[in-house]
Amino acid sequence: MIKIAICDDEKKELETVYALLTDAAQDLGIVCRCSLFESGEKLLDEIENGHTVYDIALLDIYMKELSGIRTAEQLAGLCPETAVVFITTSQEHAVDAFTLEALHYLVKPVDAGQLRTVLERYLKKTARKKTVEIRVGRDNVRLSEESIQYLESARNGTDIHTAGGLLHTSMPTGLLEQKLGKDFLKIQGGLIVNMHFIEKMTAESCALKNGFIALLSRRDRQKIRTAYREFIFNVTEGSEDS
């Protein structure tokens, strides 16, 4: 199921996009759960306080209070995995959409064909990425592995540091370790690092690209350094072959 937020300060537009999106999903055989919001503030409040995570957010750019662009900027910090689609009456903000890495940019009047393309793009995007499913609040969320920088045990669960911000899940770090791919390395108890995010590894510690430094597990130092050397060798070899 794809969870979608539709945000527009005009009720008629909300209802129109919802009806067209439902038709497009049925044509593709996709199950969608849509939530409608009449302002960017209400959408952000639901995400922040309701702990709701959406796969896709369709945002009208010209909303009266918080614009679609500003809403998308704040959304990126709260939920970096949400794919953003802008809906507007002109191409004026196309550059902003590109900068924010929007999934699509739709010019009104929106039709079912455009929304079908949105769903198809989302499916292709998620199919290309290695993902891991986590529990955030009341929702199951799929994070692309490449967006995860490191994970650490915290608050009876796990803090997940991503390129777009911090997410917390009640899932144990050990359980998440089993779900992650070969690019992740356990540095010490309760700390797992995406090796692409390692800046430097010494005999005793590991420095990440954000400046965070962690001591290597004393018992497993040799094993950790060996795993990282093999990773570097494989990455370098792959670069030379491409």
From TrEMBL:
Recite the UniProt keywords alphabetically.
Answer: DNA-binding, Phosphoprotein
Pfam families hit by this protein: LytTR, Response_reg
The organism's lineage? Bacteria, Bacillati, Bacillota, Clostridia, Lachnospirales
Q: Is Transferase set as a keyword in this record?
A: no
What molecular functions are annotated in GO for this chain?
DNA binding; phosphorelay response regulator activity
- What is the documented function of this protein? May play the central regulatory role in sporulation. It may be an element of the effector pathway responsible for the activation of sporulation genes in response to nutritional stress. Spo0A may act in concert with spo0H (a sigma factor) to control the expression of some genes that are critical to the sporulation process.
Q: Which residues carry this modification: 4-aspartylphosphate?
A: 60
Identification of the protein by name: Stage 0 sporulation protein A homolog
Q: Tell me where in this chain the Response regulatory domain is found.
A: 3-123
Q: Which InterPro entries match?
A: CheY-like_superfamily (IPR011006), LytR-like (IPR046947), LytTR_DNA-bd_dom (IPR007492), Sig_transdc_resp-reg_receiver (IPR001789)
